[in-house]
Design a protein that fits this description.
single chain, alpha/beta, Rossmann fold, Dihydrodipicolinate Reductase, domain 2, 2 domains, 9-stranded mixed beta sheet, 5-stranded parallel beta sheet
Length: 393
């Protein structure tokens, strides 16, 4: 009889290894070469069927310096904007990564799609629902792939949440509490594009709030949002004595801060589901709470993290009854053995482009995510509950 180790080795050896056809390389362009673009370029470099050929950035010389820093040669970077790059037919672009600040997500995505180029658009989708609709109309007209940059989707633990809900063990879902937070985590190490109204448009809501919304909405099948009563504030971001400003020597950032550093909302979804949401870049608390999914047959607790970035904070727990007795089932954390979620985000996008298949993170789903975020902002401004209106595309 074979010992356990030999059986395991045989099992691993017999696993199907996905091969990537590198005979035709996909020609990739970058629109925006800020901080998040670094993660994109590293993930593309890990793929055998990619050639990074061009980049555009509004700041002269920034794109060239970016690729020099990352050791990528032969990238054409003398484009003052995305339009000039996308108008250059000699590049024969297959796809672009849009890595601009939030306010510049929609325009280059629309222009690229209208040029017949596939788009990987960083999160958040856009700033407003109206912008997202316009991007999706360009997507529909072009027939090209538009995928939104939600890499937590590819975490096996996130997939497990969806499997648990779809298994029926929780019964009918009727209430969800979700969100996340950072005790001190306003993202200013890379400048002020994340916090200024003219560049960001939305703060914690779009930066990390979109992830917590996707975690639960994807699990329950992305029901349509109907109404929202939202609140947002900026007590920390506008305070020059905020500890991270003081530590980094930038108290002047307080005057530039023009977005939310905290938001909360009560959202009604189709199917009679209530969503209780809160998100924070900064707060006097370790966490705004675990994610809780209440169902008629069981409940699921998803532990929070100290610094929310779209991950599960520990073993999950299902509360249910077995033979009339109350019990709990622990769902251990799945060890992904160092798998890069960013690599998976890039790889699944490339596969969709090559194979002509659906986007791995489709805009039709993230539109509802965006509508909730935008709805929270609009409700907060109005000081009352509002209906979420999503026009036809």
């Amino acid at each position: 009889m074979k010992d356990e180790k030999s059986i395991l080795n045989a099992f691993e050896e017999n696993q199907e290894v996905k091969t990537i056809d590198a005979s035709r390389k996909l020609r990739i362009g970058f629109i925006g070469t800020g901080w998040i673009a670094g993660a994109h370029v590293q993930a593309y470099l890990n793929q055998p069927d990619v050639e990074i050929v061009a980049a555009a950035d509004l700041i002269p010389g920034k794109a060239a310096a970016f690729f020099k820093k990352h050791g990528v040669d032969g990238v054409k970077t003398d484009y003052p904007s995305h339009k000039e790059m996308l108008d250059d037919a000699s590049l024969k672009l297959d796809a672009v990564s849009v890595c601009t600040y939030n306010r510049q997500h929609a325009a280059p995505a629309i222009y690229a799609l209208n040029k017949g180029v596939n788009v990987l658009l960083e999160k958040p989708f856009t700033v407003t629902t109206e912008e997202a609709i316009e991007v999706m109309r360009a997507e529909k007209k072009s027939g090209k792939v538009l995928s939104i940059g939600f890499q937590p989707r590819f975490d096996e633990n996130m997939k497990m949440i969806k499997k648990i809900v779809e298994s029926g063990i929780l019964g009918k879902i009727y209430y969800i509490q979700t969100g996340g937070g950072r005790r001190r985590g306003i993202p200013t190490p890379y400048g002020t594009t994340f916090i200024e109204q003219d560049t960001a448009g939305i703060g914690a809501l779009g930066d990390i709030g979109c992830y917590s919304l996707d975690m639960v909405l994807n699990a329950i099948g992305y029901p349509k949002p109907l109404t929202v009563s939202g609140y947002k504030s900026s007590f920390f971001g506008t305070d020059p004595n905020y500890s991270n400003y003081v530590k980094t020597g930038h108290p002047e950032y307080a005057k530039k801060f023009g977005v939310d550093d905290f938001a909360a909302a009560f959202v009604r979804l189709e199917g009679g589901i209530i969503l209780d949401f809160r998100i924070a870049w900064a707060m006097h608390m370790d966490t705004p709470g675990d994610t809780l999914i209440f169902g008629t047959k069981g409940g699921l607790r998803i532990p929070s993290t100290d610094c929310w970035n779209g991950t599960v904070g520990g073993a999950m727990k299902i509360y249910h009854e077995v033979c009339g007795e109350q019990t709990e089932t622990v769902v251990p954390i799945i060890d992904t053995k160092g798998v890069s979620l960013f690599d998976l985000k890039i790889r699944t996008f490339l596969d969709a482009v090559k194979n002509g298949t659906s986007a791995p993170v489709p805009s039709a789903q993230i539109l509802y995510n965006q509508a909730i975020i935008d709805g929270i902002a609009k409700s907060a401004a109005a000081g009352r509950e509002i209906e979420i209106d999503i026009p036809e595309i």
